[in-house]
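Re-run with default settings, no changes from the original entry. Doing this only to confirm the output is reproducible before filing.
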Amino acid sequence: MRGRAPVPLERAADIRARLLEDAAARFAFGAWSLDLASGRFVGTESLARLLQWEAALDALDFDALRTALLEPGRTAFELAIERARSRGTPWDFGARLRQRDGTEQFVQLRGAALVENGRCIGLRGAVQLLPAASSNIESRDNERAQRGLVQRLELAAAAAGVGFFEVGPAAADNTWSARMREIYGLDPTSPPPDRETWRRVFLHPDDAAAQEAAILASFRSGTYEHEHRIIRADGAVRWVYSHAVVDSQSERRWLGIAMDITERKLGEQQLHEALDRLALATKGSGVGVWQRDLDRDIAHWSDELFPLYGLPQHRGAPDWKELVAIVHPDDRALFESQWQDLVGSTEFIDSEYRVRHPDGRTRWVLTRGRHEPGRGAHRGRIVGVALDITERKAAEQRAREAGRWLEIASQAMRLGLWRRDLATDTLHWNAELRRIFGLAETAPDPTLDQVLEYVLPEDRPKVLASRQGPDARREIVEVEYRVRRADGEIRTLLSRGAAQQDLDGKPSAAYSAIIDVTDQRRAAVALEQTLERLKVAAETGGVGVWERDLATDAAHWDPVLWTLYGLAPRETGPSRAEAERYVHPDDRATVDAAWRRLQEVDHAVEYEFRVPRADGSLAYLNSRGRCIRDAAGKPLRVVGATIDVTSSRNAQRQLREMDEFVKLASVVTGVGFFRIGLDSTTSFTDAQLKRIFGFDPAGGSLARRIRIAHPAGGPADPAQRARTGARQCATRGRRVPDPPARRLAASHLHASCPGARRIGSTDARARHGDRRHLDAHRRTGARASGAAHRAGHQRAAARPLGVGSAGAHQRLERPDVHAVRP
């Protein structure tokens, strides 16, 4: 033996295989192995014979062995395999096996895991036929073999929490495993309850009807499966899953398993509650849930997504190409790029894009999704939510437009804006505010201390006080102060600011708008000075200013106007009715008519009325007012001014009375009056003078006929000769030969220029001086007036107007005015 060559490895393996096959045939067992990495299953020929496998040995697989086992052995075998893969636990238990010809055999299953570097890489096992037990399978009378089966299955089900039970046709024919007793809270040594006790004591009353229906259905299908609640011995309520096989050939005997599924049920309940809350939150809010399988390109959408994308719900979720086609063309590239980012990451990724509905409308959509990778070669799926953000996008657009409008308005109105972050105490200025302070547009935002340096020292305290102004109530804080710009010019600024609150209601930022009011303040000072001057002028000139609102009847009277009415000044003016009571009763109709006309016309209306004063005097007032209207022409208010014309009206009254007195004196004394303007355009002769000269008293003026012949060349026409003859006749007391003239016995003519010395005199030596007076009045535009009276009256009555006789005459510079001198 020492000199013989060793047996090759290939041959040794063949020998061991033959020996193993001989042993398998002798002891009736088959062996198998399973490589977990490749999934390759290798079974021996003896295993194929045991299973009555007719196909090629290479076609024998693990599933053929598993399906040949009968329940509950199949379940126990699967649990044992899983424990071996995860924990490396070996198995050894008995089970029933059905061969190809339908024969049921009792077998022993043994096996173990192949572990390498702490990791299970494969499984090896054996199936041994047990002839003694097999001969007893046909008769269900061998309780010993059945109990052995249950005991062995208990070992496999212990870790999985599976309890086995067997229920026979008799009421007390029940067999429970230890795990079954543990599930029901019973002592391990206590006998299992009979069926009636189980229903009455342990089965939850609310599930009794459903459990009974499941039992009746099992008689038809041969399989019992049900989930129900039980009341344990300690009073706790638990959920139990039961699965049993009904053997109709053995007087309705059930073999089954039971599992405590309380935790799973609680999880399902929480899941359903969460789904209900999600549905409640998403319904009506526009939020939809979606997922897309990356391998099959199959998507699932909630009901809220279909109207969001403008799709009918009955057609189902679109595939990838259809979804891309719905996206707005301008957003497709971004949408596909963000989708690739989503596939390559496991983080949540947000995407905003527009979709176009079939009717042409455009909506904005926000999606948030995450990639859930699959196992092995599977790519997994993308899950996420989507909501309609069209209104938010529209609000953002309006905010951008408002910001742009604010920028344009700030430039047009020269409005400076700044924002102060209260947490960091930093400022942010716009370009217009830099211009107001005389800074360059590229200058950095100043600090609060730098801004304070621009403020004049006397105004700094109120600026510092305004910093504390904006509080949680968002009150507007206004402060006016002066600054010295960078170029040295002093300007007056008006600032209005308010605070912005955070989510906790605390001020987080302050905003302010600043305008340069230097020109306005200067104009206000100038206006105040002007108004003061007008007030002085009005008080000095006796002009009262008033205003009345036509809608409210509110009036304003200045102090001068109250004085004109003889009343004490009040803060508010009188009502329309009260003001009318101040007017003289005879003038109220005139005032009412003028008031109505004020509201009808667009120009000023002047009217005059009398006011009886409290001191008993009667004042004559003249008012001039105008109506102010809106853009549509509707009257809004009336403004006007009133002056006191009492003195003027009294003078006119006295003048009228004097005129009446002169007229009366003229008629009584026979004196006639005339007035001739030096410009030869105006003249007046009274009726008495016309009667003196023999003319109709109602006729025209006689001024052009009262002319004395020029002394230089004598009479130039018959009328002039007649006048000369009349003068001669009057002087000598003889009759005038020409018809137009009448005899004026000892007549006298008197002439004078009002406002100057007399131009007539009884002293011939004054004729040259009188001529100078006439020349002076001719140059100043005065007029000549005179009087004629019959002889026999005293000359003293006419001397205030100047006198002259019918004797020698003197030529005036203007040919149409002559004065007769004695």
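The two ends are 204 Å apart (CA to CA). DSSP finds 25 helices and 32 strands in the chain.
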